[in-house]
Amino acid sequence: xxxxxxxxxxxxxxxxxxxxxxxxxxxxxxxxxxxxxxxxxxxxxxxxxxxxxxxxxxxxxxxxxxxxxxxxxxxxxxxxxxxxxxxxxxxxxxxxxxxxxxxxxxxxxxxxxxxx
Amino acid sequence: xxxxxxxxxxxxxxxxxxxxxxxxxxxxxxxxxxxxxxxxxxxxxxxxxxxxxxxxxxxxxxxxxxxxxxxxxxxxxxxxxxxxxxxxxxxxxxxxxxxxxxxxxxxxxx
Lengths: 116, 110
Prior knowledge:
The structure holds 2 protein chains of 2 kinds. By secondary structure, chain A is mainly β. In chain A, 0% of the residues lie in helices and 54% in strands. Chain A is built from no helices and 11 strands. In chain A, the strands form 2 sheets. In chain A, strands 2, 4, 5, 6, 9, 10 and 11 form a 7-stranded mixed β-sheet that branches. Chain A has a 4-stranded antiparallel β-sheet with strand order 1-3-8-7, with no helix packed on it. In chain A, strand 5 (42-50) and strand 6 form a beta hairpin. By secondary structure, chain B is mainly beta. Chain B contains no helices and 11 strands. Chain B has strands at residues 4-5, 11-14, 19-25, 32-38, 44-50, 54-58, 61-66, 71-76, 85-92, 98-100, 104-109. In chain B, strands 2, 4, 5, 9, 10 and 11 form a 6-stranded mixed β-sheet that branches. The N and C termini of chain B lie far apart (40 Å). The interface between A and B is medium-sized, with 21 and 21 residues.
């Protein structure tokens, strides 16, 4: 049963600390997305990759956030330094990046981040 | 400021009826349009994607796009209680960011 996995599921940290969230996309998927959801801002797309290359990260605060795909089985989202306003649920999703199959996008369970 | 607007709801429809969810957007250059469904406390699911004017059907779901009027809608035929969820509209202009609407909460009453 193929699914997107995310670790950790929950993270509580203190302001100023570095946070790294990991995502394992579904094997064979060539597109990976990072989303953030809060009650105030709703759902936001932070970045997405196709074939491990960043295609769009315009939604991501560049000064403290970074997203990478060191290999096809791992995507990371890093926040350094973290701030209380970064508290949110961070979702990773993977899919196949052709127009015909773009509506097949599978979400992971999310990482709930709390920055104190 | 590019905006995507949706009625927050809740939109209540009886079981078996057609649920109509609407979304308007401000960026005329938008090219791709998405509908996500999210059950309370769960991850979102991408349920429809449309980029051409007109209708796109997938099972009980139909997405309708009218670029001239800058709206996209989602129709759910034969609504079931299991369709009760929040539906999020998103709009994308290539090279720029996705913009999400605030979501419409749908309640299908048995």
